[in-house]
C-alpha cells in the first residue's frame, strides 16, 4: 500500500473535486481495526478493478480511506454502485479525491511520480499543524498537563472481520448444516470439485464443518458453486473461508 494518502475532497458541495481515479471514503467505522477496514474495502471494490487502498490510523485520517482504480470510469461506476453501503453498520460517504493517489501516478504516469511525491510532501508539511482536530487534542493535553492529570487511556474493542470478508484460503467453513449431515454425504458433495483433501465434522457442534482442499483455487471454486446449497432440501448451507 502507498504510504501517503491523496488530498481529501472538500466537504462543501460547491467545491466538488473533479473526477479522477481515486475515491475518498468517509464515515468508516473507527472501532474496526485498520487492517480489517483495508481488507474489507479491497474485497468490496474488487469487482471494479481496485489497485490500491490507503488508510491511516492517525487522528486526522481516522474514519477515512482512499481507494484507487485503473481509470476514472471504473472509479465513477464504483462510487455510483457502492455509495451508502453500510460497512460495519455505517453508511459510507464517497466522493472523488482532490488529487491522484501515489499508486495511480506510479502506475499510469511513472515519469511524473517524483514531482507528484514532492508536491504531496510539501502540502503535508504546510498543513501538518493547521488541522483543527490536532489543535483540539493538543489543547486537551496541555490542559491535562497543567492540571497534573493524564488523559484517560481508551481501549478499542477487538472487532473481528465478518466471515463474508475473510480472504481466500484452502479451508472452507460450513455453517447451518442439518444435524443429520454425515461425513460421507459432505465428501460426496464437495468431491465434485477437484483437489479435495479432507472433510472434518465437529462432534459437539453438528451444524458446522470444515472442508479442506489442496489449493485456494479449488476451495474458491467449491465455495462459489455450493454456497446456499440446500443439502436437505430446506436449509441453505453458508460457506465462507475459514479463519487462519
Structure, described:
The protein has 244 residues and is α+β, with helices and mostly antiparallel strands. It folds into two domains: 13-136, 2-Layer Sandwich (Alpha-Beta Plaits), CATH 3.30.70; 166-241, 2-Layer Sandwich (Alpha-Beta Plaits), CATH 3.30.70.330. It contains seven helices and ten strands. The protein has helices at residues 34-45, 72-82, 102-108, 113-127, 132-146, 183-190, 216-226; strands at residues 22-26, 50-54, 65-69, 86-87, 90-91, 93-96, 171-175, 196-201, 209-213, 238-241. The strands form three sheets. A four-stranded antiparallel β-sheet has the order 2-3-1-6, with helices on one face. Strands 8-9-7-10 form a four-stranded antiparallel β-sheet, with helices on one face. The longest helix has 15 residues, at 113-127. The protein is elongated. The chain starts with 21 loop residues before the first strand and ends with a strand. Belongs to the RRM U1 A/B'' family. This is RNA-binding domain-containing protein. Pfam families: RRM_1 (PF00076). Residues 141-162 are annotated as: Disordered. It is found in: Nucleus.
Amino acid at each position: 500500500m502507498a504510504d501517503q494518502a491523496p488530498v481529501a475532497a472538500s466537504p462543501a458541495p460547491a467545491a466538488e473535486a473533479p473526477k479522477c481515479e481515486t475515491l475518498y471514503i468517509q464515515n468508516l467505522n473507527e472501532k474496526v481495526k485498520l487492517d480489517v477496514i483495508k481488507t474489507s474495502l479491497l474485497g468490496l471494490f474488487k469487482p471494479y478493478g481496485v489497485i490500491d487502498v490507503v488508510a491511516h490510523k492517525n487522528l486526522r485520517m481516522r474514519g477515512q480511506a482512499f481507494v484507487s482504480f485503473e481509470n476514472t470510469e471504473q472509479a465513477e461506476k464504483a462510487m455510483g454502485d457502492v455509495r451508502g453501503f453500510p460497512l460495519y453498520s455505517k453508511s459510507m460517504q464517497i466522493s472523488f479525491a482532490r488529487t491522484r493517489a501515489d499508486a495511480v501516478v506510479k502506475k499510469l504516469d511513472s515519469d511524473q511520480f517524483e514531482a507528484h511525491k514532492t508536491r504531496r510532501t510539501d502540502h503535508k508539511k504546510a498543513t501538518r499543524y493547521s488541522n483543527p482536530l490536532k489543535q483540539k487534542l493538543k489543547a486537551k493535553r496541555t490542559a491535562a498537563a497543567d492540571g497534573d492529570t493524564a488523559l484517560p487511556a481508551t481501549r478499542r474493542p477487538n472487532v473481528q472481520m465478518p466471515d463474508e470478508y475473510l480472504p481466500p484460503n484452502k479451508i472452507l467453513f460450513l455453517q447451518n448444516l442439518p444435524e443429520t449431515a454425515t461425513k460421507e454425504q459432505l465428501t460426496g458433495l464437495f468431491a465434485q470439485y477437484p483437489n479435495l483433501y479432507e472433510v472434518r465434522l465437529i462432534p459437539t457442534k453438528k451444524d458446522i464443518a470444515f472442508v479442506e482442499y489442496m489449493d485456494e483455487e479449488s476451495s474458491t471454486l467449491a465455495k462459489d458453486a455450493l454456497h446456499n446449497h440446500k443439502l436437505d432440501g430446506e436449509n441453505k448451507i453458508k460457506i465462507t473461508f475459514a479463519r487462519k
